[in-house]
Amino acid sequence: MLYREAGQFKTSYQADQAAFPIFQDQLAVWAILAVAFIGVPLVGNDFFLNSIMIPFLIFALASVGLNILTGYAGQLSLGTGAFMGVGAYACYKLTTIFPDVNIVIMIVASGFFSAGIGMIFGLPSLRIKGFYLVVTTLAAQFFLEWCFIRIAWLYNYNPSGAIEVPQREAFGVILTGASATPVTRYLLVLSIVVVMTWIAFNIIRGRIGRSWMMIRDMDIAAELMGVKPLNAKLSAFAVSSFYCGVAGAMMVFFWLGAAEVESFDVNHSFLILFMVILGGLGSIKGAFMGAAFIWILPILIRAAPGWIGIEVQAATVEHLNFMLIGGLIIFFLIIEPHGLARLWSIGKQKLRVWPFPY
Amino acid sequence: MGLLFDIFINPFVEMASGLDFLLQVLWEGFVSGTLYALIALGFVLIFKASGVFNFAQGIMVVFAALTLVGLHALGIPAFLALILAVAIMALLAVTVERVVLRHLVNQPDIILFMVTIGLTYFLIGFGELVFGGDPKSMITEELGLPTGSTVFDVFDGIVILQHLDVAAAVISAIMVAGLAVFFNKTRIGRALRAVADDHQAALSVGISLNQIWAIVWFAAGIVALTTGIMWGAKSDVSFALQIVALKALPVLILGGFTSIPGAIVGGLIIGMGEKLFEVYWGGLLGGGVEGWFAYVIALIFLLFRPQGLFGEKIIERV
Amino acid sequence: MNVHSQAAAAQSDDGIALGADLLHVDNISLSFGGVKAIQDVSFDIRKGEIRAIIGPNGAGKTSMLNVINGFYHPQEGIISFKGRERRRMRPYEAAAQGIARTFQNVALFTGMTTLENIMAGRSLKMHRNFFWQMLYRGPALNEEMEHRRVVEEIIDFLEIEAIRKTPVGQLPYGLQKRVELGRALAMEPTLLLLDEPMAGMNLEEKEDMSRYVLDVNSQLGTTIALIEHDMGVVMDLADRVMVLDYGKKIADGTPDEVQANQAVIDAYLGVPH
Amino acid sequence: MAVAEDRSATGLSTFPQYLLLNAERFGSRVAMRHKDFGIWQSWSWAEQLDQVRRFSLGLKQMGLKPGQKVALIGANRPRLYWTFCAVQAIGGVPVPLYSDSVAEEMAYVLEHAEAVFAVCQDQEQVDKVLSMGEALTHLDQIIYDEPRGLRDYDQDHLHSFEQVQAMGRKALEDPKVGEDWVAGIGKGKGGDLAVMLYTSGTTGRPKGVMLSYENLVVSARNANAFDSFDQNEQVIAYLPIAWVGDHVFSYAQAYVAGYCVCCPESAETTDQDRREIAPTYFFAPPRVFETLLTAILVRMEDAGRIKRAMFNYFMDHARRVGERILNGERVGVLDRLLNWFGEILVYGPLKNRMGLTRMQVGYTAGEAIGPEIFRFYRSLGLNLKQLYGQTEASVYVTAQPDGEIRPDTVGRPSPDVEIEIDKSGEVLYRSPGVFVGYYKNDEATKSTKDKNGWVRTGDAGFFDHEGHLKIIDRAKDVGKMKDGSLFAPKYIENKLKFFPNIKEVVAFGDERDFCAVFLNIDLTSVGNWAERNNISYASYQELASHPEVYAMMEEHVDQVNRDLSGEDMMAGSQIHRFLVLHKELDADDGELTRTQKVRRSFIAERYGELIDALYDGSEHKFVETEVTFEDGRKGSISADVIIRDAKVYPVAEEASRQEAAE
After folding, report:
1. Domains held by chain C: number
2. What stretches of D360-515 show up as alpha helix (H) in DSSP?
3. Closest chain C residue to A19 measured between Cα atoms?
4. Least CB-packed of A150, B208, C57, D407 within 10 Å?
């Protein structure tokens, strides 16, 4: 209905394969970016930025990362939390060793560390598949958690066992630490997320992304088309872990301010996996939708009793929250196993063919 | 050199010099291995019959135990509470089949897997809402389980066997035997086995797929209840158990996803292996290696025998 | 058209003359556990021909294709392709040497569209590095567009314009087979293995597919080895036919020779078709 | 621009001259698009000139002489359109052929036209031409566009389009050649023969209509002015290139106005391609509009209840006010508001789906369009109009000016066209577009065109009180029933054909006691209906003879009879009996013309048994019919065709009185 595609024709392959070939979609994307970069910082209060937008974006990036591995390359992983941890600890070490280097560079650099670790734990994927691989990634998860506790060097022998974010500035603006304003942190996170999402999208629609999907859809056929499973799977692990690592570093540096091992436990892995599944495997858009759903819905649930004037114990709300999320996951998987992204594209298709049903 | 010595020589010297201690360690490992095996058994039951990788098995253990304790706390006699708890597990099985599984026929494995994670979350929230989040004590004595311990003198030292542990081992053995009989001797059991191979064949036995699912979930529920009682008696009944239950995964890898004996043997290997490693090698790494050792064993194992100890070799076809 | 010139180029670069041996299979034996799938089979495929492998169910036809493209490793025997001998080879190495194939039960990448599937066949020909891939600009984009053009020629060749952007899972079976052929063609193979390309098709679809197979052979100069159940099709298409039965070769020759062969008649009478 | 204005329009007399002008004034504007290899390949006027020049000179190198004929065989492809101009530029005469005609038909035209070259689209057409072999005594060279499948052909006289262009390019290395070429074009005169179009004709052999540059250029210029077309139009060329309509809309008018012509990828993708291009000017025979509407209605049947209700509500609203708004009449504020909502919810999306969002002007012609269909499009806000034209008139005889659109007329005489109605009711016209004559057929020329330039259309019609022409039927088809009442078969057929379930109708009644009809069901529409109602069928034949289908047809016939009973002129020709034919009428079997018109006499002969059965009261009749399959093989199908009686209504005098009073 909103789509009026008549008269939109492509005269080059570049235009035909553009990220958003439909004009109306391009408009929407620019509108969303404008709101995110201009509208939100202008209107949003600290709570909104700190508790909703920043974590949402960070989790969305981690979901993009996991989606690359699970949704595009078809390798199930429960080690996301730990890979995020690798990024966070790496960034912490980097910035304490090189305090003068711009923190944004360090955050990106820390991604390489988790990419490396991810590749190591991705090696078994060459031999094993499916649920068996889950065990491998769980091994990574628990082993890395153990490292975060036992290797005191990682947290600079801090007696509390936590990493605390030091203050870092660039061009006279405080970027991290307690005095960094939410708006600054938000814009930083947003910029990194936007750029990295764009890159992820590019990789996915190119040769490498295709090799991932080939492996996912039919690994035997992929190999017979000349795709080396080693390259495809390890590159997926590397890229995915890179994204998770950057997300983890941002989580600590731009959101939590301090973190210990609990911030990267297996529950986090589950959280991100939920975001990916609920959002839709194999969809970048879905990663954002899933992150928004899983992160923002509980906040709303927590706030809801207050709005309608009912006093409910915080613990009870928390329990209800768990039930609701669990229930919703089941519900969504039953009505649409391909997640919110599929619902979205069905809706979009409906709008495109409106008023016809197909 | 010192490191190599610490890894390859020293632990064995320690073992040999303290055989009683070694025996004690092995026994402890055996006991926790039994529990791993029981949880793995729950997984295997469901996976075998429906191909669903039931992540919720861990929370079912907690939930079953909490139900039992909670019912007893209401003043219901232990025995009656036990029967009621069994009934509730049956109800859970039927509900899961009706509300969830029935709508997800022919969906990819990963979706079913995710659904069980959703179920896990739901049960966590539900359990905490109903029973509260605090750890509870298992009603060990009320159920007539033995307490206390026996001390044996062996190898110039002592080995302590908790009666409860012995009971756990015995009950587990009985349960495995019972399941074996159920699968091999009863009509439903045979149907369950058939369904693992061929859905059509199962239908020809005259049992609907839906019934079969409900039955295996119920069976898994009973296994969970047993596991919960045993584990609860050893420590407390708490939600932390849920994470420990993930240990069943490496057990499954070792044993194979569809093999009941595999689950038992795998459980024992993991249980004893990780105890040994923790005690004799853990110190080298600063301790706490129990958290991941099982997975690493599984991982190494996987690289050499991806189909597990008892699984069949997979020939890929195109 | 580009496809032609490229295929022509591919034809000349291996230095094998038309009609000379392209692939040589010597005394291959393959077994799984105790089951002998192939027993001591030798045959050759000549450059530029259409070679059919026929036989009753379970005769080891598909296993033979699997051996040729490196998916199964025979316990005994040697395969030489383009004059190079090899004993063990990974499937992707076979692909790199110019062997492409389709599958008995369509093995398309179901999560992708027709276009993407055929594009997937170009994987080996694309080399731009990760950096450019990330940007989807410059060389990576140019490469992508170049190959899109080649893919479009294949789409044109197979007349599947209308389903270009349809996810392959939604296509009827006959079209899926055609897309799969397209994907194999995208590899610009020297040797194309077709595993029952016409299975499950109606008469019209079979005729179409036969035409494409012939066109591929005559226009692109691709050597084709195919397994097929429909004897009529085999007799029409193939230059030479090899017959397998219980893993053994029982006949080899022109369609007419094979048809007259008593062993073949017996084998086929044993298994009604 | 000043130069362009100076030189523009009026001074020029041939299309190659327009090509030169357009390359100059619209050099970088897109002249031609073709969806090929997944994207819209585009050529600017300058590039088009280049393509045409190279090909033209290549043809010359190959020995094409002025006045020689070149056959064009194929679908709408840029290279075929370029061929028109390339041939004309060196004084040759292009002769486009219907690409779906069988080899024998083609052979006749190629031979009759004395074509020396044939430019074919692909292997299929080349094969056809080659298959005629020795029968083609004039044909010398064959040129093909798409090389697929032609690699192994070793005929010496077979060349690819590129090869010919390469010859042209080679020749162009000598600058003098290019100058001479341009100079040659400059010498072209309006009176020269521009093109020969063979009419597929309902009877007899096709006749070659010779049209001069003047015919086409003046007609095109007038038509462009009539609807204010300029270089900004985009049209989609999807109708046969051999048909005068396509030649005028996609070639003549495009060259004169300088607008862009877009060729679809293939026949199956035409709908999608139209949606992508969204033409600003769209021509389609009524059949296309019918098909589109049927598709819409069928799809809406499958929509949810709410959507359907919404669709029906707004379509009702559109029926009430849509056309009035389009005509610029005064409409209430509330109605306008509703219309605005409708535009957002229904009309806009519908136009979008049909690819008509940007359509400024649309024409339909060739046959009467069902008034309901016509109104449907008008009410959506689409400026659909009717025109009446003929090959012999370079299309335009009459057209509806904006603001004077009536569903049942074909409009006023087009600019520069004079019209007369003779005693028998036949329409005659005279205009600058009137053809030179039929090629090698003076007899036919004389019987059609008199010495004063008046041309007989063969259609019966009359002017209404507004001065609009109304066409009733072919003049020779209008007959009388035994009771003396008027029988205009097409009138009845069109009424039935409005039902989406009915695809084709043949009515009988001339010199008979009553009117009876053959029906062809619409397989898409009825098939869809069958699917929804769980009616299984294996073939067209089975579906056609299904009792429920018959019941449905009976309802439709009944509806028409009720309508007819309300019109005193036509009440006598109510349908008494009908049958549903066991096969689809098909051009391959000669039952339809290539432009999909019913060939009444042929059908009457072929199905004589069935017609007899209609009138002898039998309830069913066993027949065997020969059919031609797509690949040219012949076969036969047999069926026991059921015949039904329909209810006939007495003449509703009141209704007719009321109508008279209005």
Report:
1. 2
2. 371-379, 442-448, 489-497
3. C136
4. C57
Looking at residue C262, what is its pLDDT?
86
Which of C132, C161, C187 delimits the end of a domain? C187
For residue D17, tell me if it sits in a domain.
yes
Regarding chains D and A, contact by 3 or more CB pairs under 8 A is answered as yes
- Size of chain C, expressed as the number of residues it contains: 273
Closest chain A residue by Cα to residue D307: A355
> What does the DSSP 8-state code read for residue D436?
-
Strand-pair category, C191-195 with C99-102:
parallel
> Based on the domain organization, do D230 and D343 belong to the same domain?
no
| Interface membership of C58 toward B (CB under 8 Å) | no
Q: Which residue has the tokens 């295997």?
A: B44
- Say if the Cβ atoms of A320 and B129 lie within 8 Å: yes
What letters, b where the CB count within 10 A reaches 16 and e where it falls short, cover C83-108? eeeeeebbbbbbbebbbbbbbbebbb
User: Chain A, 1-40: which have a CB under 8 Å from a chain D CB?
Assistant: 1, 3-13, 15-16
Interface test with D, best of A3, A23, A356, A358 (most D CBs within 10 A): A356
Q: pLDDT band at residue B315, thresholds of 50, 70 and 90? A: low
Q: Are D33 and A11 a contacting pair at CB < 8 A?
A: yes
For helices D305-317 and D333-342, what crossing angle results, to 10°?
Answer: 140
Provide, as residue numbers in chain C, all residues whose Cβ is less than 8 Å from the Cβ of B106: none
C111·A225 Cβ contact <8 A: no
D457 and D503 fall within a common domain: no
User: Are the beta carbons of B297 and B58 closer than 8 angstroms?
Assistant: no
The two structure tokens encoding residue A175: 């970027």
State chain C's mean pLDDT as an integer.
86
Does a structural domain hold residue A318?
Answer: yes
The CATH number for A272's domain is 1.10.3470
Q: Is the pLDDT reported for residue C60 higher than 80?
A: yes
C144 to A17: CB separation less than 8 angstroms, yes or no: yes
- What tokens does D142 get? 């064959």
> What does the pLDDT look like over A104-120, one tens digit per residue?
999 999 999 999 999 99
- Percentage of chain D surpassing pLDDT 90? 56
Q: Chain A interface, mutation test: which of C93, C136, C144, most A Cβ atoms within 10 Å? A: C136
Q: Please state the length of chain A.
A: 358
Q: How far is D145 from chain C (nearest CA, A)?
A: 11
Residue B291 lies in a domain: yes
Q: How far is C267 from chain A (nearest CA, A)?
A: 32
Where are the extended beta strands (E) located within D240-297? 260-263, 281-283
Cα A145 from Cα D396, distance rounded (Å): 84
Minimum mean pLDDT among A230-244, C231-245, C258-272, D319-333: which range? C258-272
Q: How many CB atoms lie within 10 A of CB D416?
A: 14
Question: Which of B48, B114, B305, B307 is the best residue to mutate to test the A interface, defined by the most A CB atoms within 10 Å of its own CB?
Answer: B114
For residue A293 the two structure tokens come to 């759903």
C215/D149 CB distance under 8 A? yes
Q: Is C246 on the interface with B (CB under 8 A)?
A: no
Q: φ, ψ for residue D453 (rounded to 5)?
A: 95, 10
Q: Are residues D469 and D519 in the same domain?
A: no
Alpha-carbon distance values, B110 to A129, A337, A338, B124, D604 (Å): 12, 10, 11, 21, 65
Helices (H), chain C: 2-13, 61-68, 91-97, 114-120, 130-135, 138-157, 173-185, 203-219, 231-237, 255-260, 262-270
Residue range(s) defining the domain that contains residue D146: 2-266
Instruction: Tell me the average pLDDT across B202-221.
Output: 77
Given a cut of 90, is residue A173 above it in pLDDT?
no
Q: Do C148 and D38 touch (CB under 8 A)?
A: yes
A28 located within any domain: no
Domain final residue pick, D419, D447, D474: D474
pTM of the model: 0.84
**CB distance A319–B128 less than 8 Å?**
yes
- Token digits for B13? 């010297």
